[in-house]
Amino acid sequence: MERAATPRFETVDLLRGLSILAVVLLHCWVRFLVNGVAVGTGLPRWLSHLLLRNGGNGVTIFFAISGFLIMLTSIRRFGGLRHMRARLFYRIRFARIAPLLLLILVVLSLLHWASLYWQAFDSWHVKKAVGLPRALFSALTFHLNWLEAKTGYLPANWDVMWSLSVEEMFYLFFPLVCVAFVGERSPLRRVGWPLLFLLAGAMLVLGPWARSVWITTDIGQEKSYLGGMNAIAMGCLAALLCDRLSRVAAIGRGWFYAAEIVGWVLIAWMATWPRWTWLHGASRFLARTDLDDTVLPLGVCLVMVATVLRGSRGGGWLTAPVRWFGRHSYEVYLTHEFLVLLGVMAYLRWHGARPGMWTVVITLLTAPLGWAVARWFSEPMNRLLRGALPPTKATTR
Question: Domain boundaries in the chain?
Answer without folding.
Answer: 10-395
